[in-house]
Amino acid sequence: MNRKKKESEAMELSRIDDILATEEELIPSSGFLGAVMESVREEAAMPAPIPFPWKRAVPGFVLAAGVFGWGAVERVRLGVPAMKGISLVAPRLPAVMVQPMEQVGWVALALGASLLSWLLSRRLAGRSGLL
Amino acid sequence: MTETLNSAAAKNAAEDRADVERVLAGEVQAFEGIVRRWQGPLVNMAWRYCRDRGRAEELAQEAFIRAWRGLAGWRREGSFSTWLFALAANVFRSELKRFPTVNLPLEKAAEPAEPAGQHGALAAQLCADAVRRAVLALPMRYREPVILFYFHEMDLASAARTMGLPEGTLKARLSRARGLLRRRFPQLEAEQGATEFAVHNAGKEA
Q1: When comparing pLDDT for A3 and B29, which is higher?
Q2: Which label site among A118, B23, B65, B142 has the fewest CB atoms less than 10 Å from its CB?
Q3: Is B163 in contact with B148 (CB distance < 8 Å)?
Q4: From the CB of residue B115, how many other CB atoms can be counted at a distance below 10 Å?
């Protein structure tokens, strides 16, 4: 039974192989070569893409990294003594007040970062003549 | 194909290399030699991906333009044809993902009709068309190995190189694809059996 199945599968494979292997050859149309070469010539005639201005961007990146790094260091530096002073019994502030106070800092930081990146991108784009 | 892909690739290797060098040196016109040599295989390869002549030429053209842009990326240790076919397969795959051809699901692919004796050739042609269209209804994961395996004249290694897959993986996918096709066209088996029976009987009678 198993042998019969295997034989029939092999037979079927050869039939499918026959069909899929004997594909009629397609001849490209007469204008194909010309069309490809025309596109290639257009590509070749196009000006080279404007490279990213790494030389101008690197100082910006370094500055941004410095600012964020300094911010992080300051945060840790101020945070450590503050941690020492924390008593186990935290002052009980109403929850309505605590949450906005925590979020204000993050919102300010996000706004500052957005402003900085906007100014930087504007400056870069302006120099490259895009604005 | 009249000339096998592998022998064509070997014959053209030196010319391809020379043309690539000239193109990279700034001679745009040298790319024509590459297009002239490989337009047939690329259009045929694209045809197997979409079964639409106009679309096949568009896809092949896009592949040539991408090859032009990325010519400097061809590392000389591999053959140019391997690089070109792999690039073309990527182009065809991504373009057909963006704008897919209208394919029926495998279950709805037309089954070949019962071959009538007097229309044997026509029936065989219809049956072959149905099987080829059913390949396009396979999931892409199984479709591409089938397309490339038969495009490369059943050379598993070449098909695997074009797909950038290990041979074992390709073999497994191919086997699964064949299983799906076999399940879809069970009567092909019966038909083949009947043909063999008829040939056997005819031989006996003679």
Answers
A1: B29
A2: A118
A3: yes
A4: 18
Distance from CA of A18 to the nearest CA of B (A): 9
Closest CA of chain B from A2, distance in Å: 16
Residue B109 with chain A: CB contacts under 8 Å:
none
Count, residues in chain B = 206
Instruction: State ipTM.
Output: 0.74
- Whether B173 contacts B141, CB under 8 Å: yes
Out of B44, B47, B188, name the one closest to residue A15 (CB): B188
Domain ranges of chain B: 1-102, 105-206
Predicted TM-score (pTM) of this structure: 0.64
- One DSSP character per residue, chain A reads -HHHHHHHHHHHHHHHHHHHHSPPPPPPPTTHHHHHHHHHHHHHHSPPPPPP-HHHHHHHHHHHHHHHHHHHHHHHHHHHHHHHT--SS-----HHHHHHHHHHHHHHHHHHHHHHHHHHHHHHHHHTT--
pLDDT tens, position by position, B136-191 = 889 889 999 999 999 998 889 999 999 999 999 999 999 999 888 888 877 665 55
A vs B: CB pairs below 8 A: 92
CATH topology (fold) of B1-102:
Rna Polymerase Sigma Factor; Chain: A (1.10.1740)
- Cβ of B193 within 8 Å of Cβ of A17? The answer is no
pLDDT for B85? 95
For A21-30, B10-19, B114-123, B196-205, which range has the lowest pLDDT when averaged over its residues? Answer: B196-205
